[in-house]
User: Fold this.
Amino acid sequence: MAFEQEAKKNFPTWPIYDEAEIEALAEVIKSGNWWCGSPSVHKGENVWKFQEAFAKYQEAKNCVAVFNGTVAIECALLALGIGLGDEVIVSDYTFVASASAVVATNAIPIFVDIDPETLVMDVDKVEPLINEKTKAIVPVHLGGNPVEMDRLMEIAEKHDLKVVEDCSHAHGSRYKGKRAGTWGHAGTFSFQASKVLTAGEGGAIITNDDELADLIYSISDCGRNKNEYFYKHFRYGSNFRMSEYQAAVLNVQLKRFPQQHELRNQNARYLSQKLNAINGIRTMKPTPGTTELGWYVYPFVFEPEKFGNITKEQFYKTLNDNGIPTDDCYPPLHGLDCFKNVDLRKGIDYSSANWGGSKSNDANFPVVSDIYSRSVEFPQEMLLTSKDKLDWVAQFIESMKK
Ligand SMILES: Cc1ncc(COP(=O)(O)O)c(C=O)c1O
Assistant:
């Protein structure tokens, strides 16, 4: 009992920061240069430093920082020429942004079901969705778990499709020795408040293609070209720029990241051993070929019949009421109101989509619908704890069985 009380108080909270972040922000304020601007005019020191450091960490040639992970996907798709009438294949099990960014380009997301064990896009189900309108794929490395990128890239090459990896959960993940985000044409990241690297909001796009990087930069900065006159706008672009405040915090957080990443990784492996030993619990299985897993959320699936036919809501409420921070997983995209009711952009014909009205029935997305009905997740910061607390979590879940 004493340990239970202790556990309630002591799971880490997020974000983790100290004086270093406060000093970095104070320095930006005092510098008088609060924005990053175009490199030829106002060289935002923090943004340019972060881009370099993050590209290095992710082992990519280029990084363009933007103000969130949603516009990062939009910007990458626009730079790759995706637009009106194009279809883009997206995992059905993800945050809405993976698909709303596609909608923002006037293209049509097409949802693909997941693998029941790894919980990421089932690559075997991609090819049947490809037709002459298909122009891109957005694989999502859910919870840091990589999609089978070698097989997906083979399919993309065969059909001449662009690939934007949504790495919003996959900072530090590696598949078959290569960083997530460096398999596709571009990889996008989020630094939103719950993410493992955060400034409250923020995003980035990485790519090994220099020309594409310049185009992404241009689209993110009002259609400017690097080192050209400030009021020359060469193409359609918007203002997706990251601010100096965001970058100042990210530069400090990036220094903390490798150690946190290692601890999360070790603890996730330990917790998975404990939880998988419970009859009725199955944790997300790392995709075979994963060489480093940058855990973000930690999803797991339970069998209701082993827990007295408990509902998912009761399951995570019981854990929360007992001091174990637990959340619902993402509702599959096909059933979200905006897709079910086809209430998206004016003037766009969504009739070819595999969602909307009765097409949005769960029966058309059987794996993800079943998994969603009985899966919950722990937040990433819970993994920054000690092994005895993880033992207690496993013991508590075992004790919920009926
Ligand atoms: C998988 C996924 N993609 C994209 C995003 C969008 O990122 P942001 O919130 O930074 O716009 C998020 C999270 O917020 C996400 O979880």
Notes: Residues 68-70, 94-95, 97-98, 140, 166, 168-169, 190, 192, 203 surround pyridoxal-5'-phosphate (CB under 6 Å).
